[in-house]
User: Fold this.
Amino acid sequence: MRIGLLRCDEIFVDLRPRYEGYRRLFTDLFAAAGSDDVDLVDVPVFEGAFPDGPDDHDAWLITGSVRGVYEDEPWIHRLLDLVRDLDAARAPTVGVCFGHQAIAHALGGRVEHVAAFGLGNHPVRVAAHEAWMDPAHDEVGVFYSHHDQVVAMPPGGRVLGSSDHCPVAMLAVGDHMLGIQAHPEFDAAYAEGLYRGRLTSPAVSGVLGDALATLDAPLHRVDVARWMLRFLRNRA
Assistant:
């Protein structure tokens, strides 16, 4: 299965020697999930590179970003147009963090910068079990890193999961668009490096401490990756 990786950022410089970038993170994640037939094709949309259309690849994956989907940037406007094209074509698409928000925002929902800083491994309570959620869980632990979140759902969308700090932690539109606010591509070592590099001010030491305290919490990133792949394959 060829997945167009709609890459919306680079990972932090300090993490690149070990993790390279988003393509490597997701390739390793899908390999851990037991899939050896996934070909991730890098499409750096934040640099202005875009596909010709929804049929360029079998499925699509939209990455995270430090930017906000509501920002007035040409590449973000173009990405939102592409999301609408993917939706119209019913192209199988998964969005992670910024990608999750882009799906909601492009299709008529609302995303805002909120007070709660979502950091750490927090359980997502599954609100609606669907056939592609195999293996089945009532909740899954996944690492977060976000300040924006979906505060109003797009018409026709459904909430599939929620966390204490994030009511719309997972959403779907039809059977072809899936959004996940958390980062299944993060393992505990990556999350620790990101958090320590991102939160360097003494003023946020409490937030950092709370996030680091979750590093050993039950983590279901590989099972969430299996969900993502089953979702994409069911539509591809």
User: Anything to note?
Assistant: The longest strand covers residues 110-126. DSSP finds seven helices and nine strands in the chain. Residues 2-235 form a domain with the Rossmann fold fold (CATH 3.40.50.880). The two ends are 8 Å apart (CA to CA).
